[in-house]
Amino acid sequence: MNHCCARTEEATIRAPLLIICAARAVAAMRLAARDVKGVAAFLASDECQNVVVLTGAGVSCAAGIPDFRSPGGMYDTLQPELITAMPEERAAMARDPTTVVLKDMFLRNQFPYHEVRRPFILGTQRQQWKATLFHRFLEVLDAKGKLLKLVTQNIDGLDFQTCIPPEKICACHGSVGRAACEGCGAPVAFDDFCERVRANIKDINGVDANAPSESSEMLCDACRRPLLKPTTVLFGASLPQSFFEVLEEELPQAELVIVAGTSLVVSPANLIALGAPGSTPRIICDWNDVGRGVGIDCASTAREDVWLEGDADDCAVDLAACGWLEELSDLRANYPKRVV
Ligand SMILES: [Zn+2]
């Protein structure tokens, strides 16, 4: 009797919980399977109309742009002794190469930033690097009417080589392909800026015989301070307002979030993953199952997070297998050979 009562009470207590759990499970089930086929099928379905994408350096590696944090990247190859700076500034750069992109450093001495970035700025002007397969996959996603917003942490501007409307792209860390004054915000035409870089900034890599032997200041026409630079967001500076608008306006509408080529350790950009609605599957395209720090655990069944292991371009092909391979191939035919 006691047992019977106990079971009854237990059933009474548990029943509403089961109903709640079942309701949650139904609401959360968007993927037929938590693998690449399941994701691709959902992507192609009518239920998936609003996709928010967050990209990082990994999607540009195939273009030949090294990830700053990887071997061969800026932080690995920095030679402070070649840079125009005071001894204590060089020591700070030797201790931590990211000093080069600190706002405090730039306001004090602009040459470390400009001398390190010179080849990247001028290479961007001549479009030395081309959009990758993953960028083109996003172009197809947009052509299908499903790309709600692309948030890129990359400053390389490759996203703007695609046919994705610029207003759908939030370059949350700025772009090396646009220039303005860090002090007063006055824009400067990118080609004019590049001419000044070519004439005023020395080449610490020793490849440009026409570069000046010493660097000299580049003054803003508006405020006369030497603070012209690409619109990249320096460490210690705020992200553009447009990023925070994505968090408030587009992210809550996302039916799918794709995260590609980023370790998700840089805040606040990683809020795109953290702040996605609870019923929204989050897809990680990376060699590593990143995202633990923002609550993503692809091994857990708590929500529909899926890890697609591999480089971004491979993941692009896998996802395009949902029926978009022909469109992707058409775009790929235009690539320079070295990119493919
Ligand atoms: Zn200015």
Overview features:
three-stranded antiparallel β-sheet, binds zinc ion, alpha/beta, disordered N terminus, 340 residues, disordered C terminus, SIR2/SIRT2 'Small Domain', Rossmann fold, 2 domains, 12 helices, elongated, six-stranded parallel β-sheet
Provide a compact summary of the structure.
This protein has 340 residues and is of the alpha/beta class.
Structure in words:
With 340 residues, the chain is an alpha/beta fold. It has 2 domains: 32-62 and 130-174 and 239-332, Rossmann fold (3-Layer(aba) Sandwich); 66-127 and 179-230, 2-Layer Sandwich (SIR2/SIRT2 'Small Domain'), CATH 3.30.1600. The protein is 36% helix and 11% strand. It is built from 12 helices and 9 strands. The protein has a 6-stranded parallel sheet, with helices on both faces. It has a 3-stranded antiparallel sheet with strand order 5-4-6. Strand 7, helix 10 (271-274) and strand 8 form a beta-alpha-beta unit. Helix 7 packs across helix 12. The longest helix is centred in the N-terminal third of the chain and has 27 residues, at 2-28. It is elongated. Mean pLDDT is 88; it is low at 1-26 and 336-340. The chain binds zinc ion. Residues 181, 183-184, 186, 220, 222-223, 225, 227 line the site of zinc ion.
